[in-house]
Design a protein that fits this description.
Chain A is α/β, with parallel strands linked by helices. Chain A has 21 helices and 6 strands. Chain B has 6 helices and 5 strands. The longest helix of chain B has 22 residues, at 54-75. Classes of the chains: A alpha/beta (487), B alpha/beta (139).
């Protein structure tokens, strides 16, 4: 399945060049809008999209996937930018890169496979809701014309692709409505009101932050959150591209590549980014398969900014808002409503909890971590069901234990025995269980000591070798003078 | 009569009705073979990945969708095989049918009204227009 480097670059030249151009056109409005969400100049998102796309084309693990400035990352940066400014964001971007490279080197990407479905669904839904909420201040209660332009934008992006697909509909909406706004002299806020556009290539510089522990303290929590969320979305996107193309990708290489891209981008004045689901889908749909498509997307984006920079500042904000509403509708997982009804209650709860926590904290990483912990707790609760059956056989009382015996199931295990018995023959069958930990051995001790205290004759059978080893090492009930209170 | 019959399915009610008609035609001749084509829709890739457990899970979910169709074909003892393609359903089926030079294409119709057809686009209509072989649209 693995392709040679040559194939990854040049097996689909025509398709890759065309798709790359389409993606570059679709990237511009998003890169600008995500910069505005993060609270920085549009150039920060545009430079990031250019740098990340170009670098990931060479070092990524999933050919044909598009990485650039993204909404998920932009949303995480908001407080950092507000309190400390752009230079700290650039420093955080560099640190995010370092953390992601380490994640890639230590193969954390493999661990991310264990993030439950419910949490991933909650993640994309929360992301969609946050992107939508970020638009609200830009269109609610500003002016009637603002509503009109948002509505027209939505009409264009949803209806036009039915008839005409060659140029991305969002770009058509931007061109048509920007011209309309200028010629009809409509009073609308523009991108230029929120930041400046420079028509130059990004250049290398060090972020202007003190190089000390205090700076690290400020940026580290953000960088860690950015690293986690960036990898999460990148690996999800990689799986989607794998599925669409019927090929496989190298997940750890992708994690390292994302790190390298962010690390370098920080030095060129760009904000941290990651893979984009929507743009990658556009790329594959438009015929992009190889690394060349990602490279062309980045290069053509920069070319357009240098050529069209003057026009970009005149784009009316309501048009960008409309496009972002489309992005959030596209990001939301609409089959979640069926999922809520059909999935196990615990999973549905985890999904909802992830969404609610993210929307309440405005932090995707907290939601994901909380979701994972909740899922783990539900999992423990589910597997901690232990079943102890009691029956009489040839004058002996036989207990059969079924299910794993570990810290979460010991209480039920202990409560399952009849401690009123006196001078009886008792047999405990551990054939269908596994003794997992110290608490389990402790519980067995407790049961044994109580039963032995009533002069019963107790025998344990069916312990598998690992369980037996653990008991021989840790148990005290064979000790002639034990105290129950030890456990 | 029709040695190579392409039966386009998506696992819906309509594709099961189409399967029934395909069986009627295929059983007319012992040389007929049905190729069941399922297209993993690009625009549903995100949903499929989110709601499945890993790459193997996605494959299983797709085969499950085809299960009722396969059951019917097996019960009728018709010779068939399954092809899973990736892309936009309409164009992907057309390209495949023309490339493999199939003798007959059978597809179920969702029965959309004209507004829905404008919004959603009728897959069966597109196929009927562009496939270079007889097409049977099952209502």
């Amino acid at each position: 399945m693995k392709m040679s480097v040559r194939e990854q670059w040049f097996s689909n030249v025509r398709g890759d060049i065309l798709a790359g151009i389409v993606v570059a056109l679709a990237l511009i409005p998003e890169a600008i809008a995500f910069s505005i969400i993060a609270g920085v100049d549009p150039m920060v998102g545009l430079y990031a999209s250019f740098c990340i796309a170009v670098i990931i084309a060479f070092v990524g693990g999933r050919p044909g996937m598009i990485s650039a400035a993204t909404g998920a990352m932009a949303l995480l940066m908001v407080p950092l930018v507000k309190e400390h400014g752009l230079d700290y964001l650039l420093a955080a971007t560099i640190l995010t890169g370092i953390i992601q490279i380490l994640f890639g080197v230590f193969k954390i990407a493999k661990v991310m496979k264990f993030i439950p479905r419910a949490v991933m669904i909650g993640f994309v839904n929360a992301l969609a809701i946050l992107i939508f909420m970020a638009q609200v201040p830009h269109f609610i209660g500003i002016s009637t014309m603002t509503y009109v332009f948002v509505a027209i934008t939505l009409a264009i992006v949803y209806l036009l692709p039915r008839f005409f697909k060659a140029i991305p509909a969002p770009l058509i909406a931007i061109i048509v409505l920007t011209i309309a706004a200028i010629y009809l002299n409509v009073d609308l806020r523009t991108v230029g009101d929120l930041g400046a556009i420079q028509r130059s290539l990004p250049s290398f510089f060090l972020p202007n932050v003190p190089f000390n522990f205090e700076t690290l303290q400020i940026i580290f929590p953000y960088s860690l959150a950015l690293a986690i969320v960036g990898l999460l979305e990148s690996l999800l996107t990689a799986t989607i591209v794998d599925d669409m193309t019927g090929t496989e990708s190298e997940k750890d290489k992708e994690a390292r590549g994302q790190g390298i891209a962010n690390f370098i981008t920080g030095f060129f004045g760009g904000m941290a980014g990651c893979a984009m689901i929507g743009q990658s889908v556009i790329n594959v749909k438009s015929g992009g398969r190889g690394r060349l498509s990602t490279l062309i997307a980045g290069l053509f984006l920069m070319f357009l900014i240098i050529v069209l920079g003057n026009l970009v500042v005149q784009i009316p904000m309501p048009v960008l808002v409309g496009i972002m509403i489309m992005v959030s509708i596209g990001t939301f997982d609409w089959s979640s409503f069926t999922y809520l009804r059909k999935a196990p209650k615990a999973d549905a709860f985890v999904m909802l909890a992830t969404v609610i926590i993210v929307v309440a904290t405005h932090d995707l990483s907290i939601g994901v971590i909380a979701g994972v912990i909740l899922s783990a707790l539900f999992f423990v609760a589910k597997v901690s069901k232990i079943n102890v059956k009691q029956r009489l056989e040839a004058g002996k009382t036989v207990y059969t234990v079924k299910g794993p015996l570990f810290f979460a199931s010991v209480d039920h295990f202990i409560a399952s025995f009849d401690y009123e018995m006196n001078k009886q023959d008792i047999l405990i069958d551990f054939g269908s269980t596994q003794i997992w930990d110290d608490s389990a051995v402790g519980a067995i001790d407790k049961v044994m000591l109580r039963l032995l205290a009533n002069q019963n004759n107790v025998e344990m059978i069916g312990l598998n070798p690992e369980s037996k080893k653990l008991i021989d090492r840790l148990a005290i009930h064979q000790d002639p003078t034990p105290k129950i209170s030890t456990h | 009569m029709y040695p190579h019959i392409l039966l386009a399915v998506d696992g819906s009610e309509h594709s099961i009705r189409a399967t029934e008609e395909a069986i009627k035609i295929a059983t007319l001749s012992s040389q007929s073979k049905i190729e069941v084509v399922f297209v993993a829709d690009f625009s549903k890739a995100k949903d499929d990945v989110l709601h499945a457990e890993g790459a193997a899970g996605i494959e299983v979910a797709r085969r499950k969708k085809l299960a009722p169709v396969e059951e019917k074909l097996e019960a009728a003892d018709v010779s068939y095989y399954v092809t899973i393609l990736r892309g936009e359903p309409g164009p992907t089926i057309v390209e495949h049918a023309n490339q493999k030079q199939v003798d007959l294409t059978i597809i179920g119709s969702r029965g959309l009204n004209s507004l829905q057809e404008m919004m959603l686009g009728s897959v069966s209509h597109k196929i009927a227009k562009r496939v270079k072989c007889p097409v049977l649209i099952v209502k």
